[in-house]
Structures are given as structure tokens and as C-alpha cells.
């Protein structure tokens, strides 16, 4: 039988305190040849889990748009863009394309989050829950900070007010404030 600590460590595999999605800036081009010794350099911003998925998605876009396959391509630079840590919630508008069972669709979603990666993570999880989409079926086109006046979706407008209040349905008693003498406490 394994000790208690190893079972607890194996229970939670996903850390929900950091977003799964990261932003990568990739520079790539076709391989230099005798006919084209200085090929055009392409730059892309990709939102994925890690750099391996980012490179694969970058080459997928290059092959689709410019007919440059991964075997004939070259990655010049792949950097993770560090996420600035904001302390306040912002409104984000995300344009994306997704492939479903019925075809390819353009879509726009708004959400409130503390950073771009959190906003994209929120939208990807919502699409997975509502429409059974995998992360690989969604291509992010743009992520923009949207001012409150320009919001379109009612769900986002509802929480964009500065004086929004949330009701407390059940008040939970703070057990630490209750003083229980040690002579009556059964745990001692």
C-alpha cells in the first residue's frame, strides 16, 4: 500500500491557478535554396499549451496559406510572451474560427478576465463544454481589450458595471471565532 502523500499528489494533475494557454511569438520561413537564398520571414502569434504545439500550429497555418510544409520550413525564433500581471479585471473580445461537425465557423465571444491567456482559456473551456470542441479545433484570430461602452454581449455587460453586487444567500459562521474551551473540546 502506498503512503497517503503519494495518493494526494496523484489526485490533482491540473493546476487551476495558472492558465493552460500561453502566448507564443514565432518567426519562421521557407528553407533557403539556390533559387531563393533569402526567403520571406513570417511572424505569427499563437496561443497554445507549449512550444511544441505552437510550432505545429504555425506550420499548419503556413502550409494552408503559403504552401510551405514543415519539412521545407524553418523556425527562426519561438518565444513565450510573458503575461503582464494585472490586478483588475478587463473585458476581452476574442475572434476565432472553429471546426465543428457541420463545417467551419467564424465566431466572436466576450469575457471578463485578468489577462489575455485567462480570457482565451475561459473561452476554450466554454466551447469544450457547450459544443464539444477540442483546443486543436479552434484558431484564435485576435484578442482585444474592449472598453465598457463597446461591449455587445448581455452576459458581459451585466458584470461590467463598477458597482455590481453579488447576493449572499447563506451566511456561513466563522468557526474560528467561536471560543470552545479545551476541557470540552473532544479533539484534544
TrEMBL record:
Q: Which GO terms describe its molecular function?
A: structural constituent of ribosome
GO cellular component entries: ribonucleoprotein complex; ribosome
Please provide the Gene Ontology terms (biological process) for this protein: translation
Supply the InterPro entries for this chain.
Answer: Ribosomal_eL20, Ribosomal_eL20_dom, Ribosomal_eL20_eukaryotes
Q: Does the keyword Transmembrane helix apply?
A: no
Tell me the protein's name.
Answer: 60S ribosomal protein L20
Family stated for the protein in its record: Belongs to the eukaryotic ribosomal protein eL20 family.
Please give one Pfam family short name.
Ribosomal_L18A
> Keywords assigned by UniProt?
Ribonucleoprotein, Ribosomal protein
Amino acid at each position: 500500500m502506498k503512503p497517503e502523500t503519494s495518493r494526494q499528489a496523484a489526485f490533482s494533475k491540473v493546476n487551476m491557478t495558472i492558465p493552460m494557454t500561453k502566448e507564443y511569438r514565432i518567426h519562421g520561413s521557407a528553407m533557403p535554396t539556390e533559387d531563393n537564398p533569402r526567403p520571406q520571414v513570417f511572424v505569427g502569434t499563437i496561443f497554445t499549451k507549449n512550444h511544441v504545439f505552437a510550432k505545429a500550429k504555425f506550420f499548419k497555418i503556413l502550409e494552408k496559406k503559403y504552401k510551405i510544409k514543415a519539412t521545407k520550413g524553418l523556425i527562426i525564433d519561438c518565444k513565450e510572451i510573458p503575461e503582464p500581471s494585472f490586478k483588475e479585471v478587463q473585458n476581452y473580445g476574442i475572434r476565432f474560427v472553429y471546426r465543428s461537425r457541420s463545417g467551419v465557423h467564424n465566431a466572436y465571444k466576450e469575457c471578463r478576465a485578468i489577462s489575455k491567456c485567462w480570457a482565451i482559456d475561459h473561452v476554450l473551456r466554454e466551447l469544450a463544454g457547450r459544443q464539444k470542441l477540442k483546443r486543436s479545433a479552434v484558431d484564435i484570430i485576435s484578442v482585444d481589450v474592449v472598453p465598457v461602452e463597446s461591449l455587445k454581449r448581455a452576459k458581459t455587460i451585466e458584470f461590467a458595471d463598477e458597482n455590481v453586487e453579488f447576493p449572499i444567500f447563506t451566511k456561513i459562521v466563522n468557526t474560528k471565532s467561536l471560543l470552545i474551551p479545551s476541557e470540552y473540546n473532544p479533539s484534544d
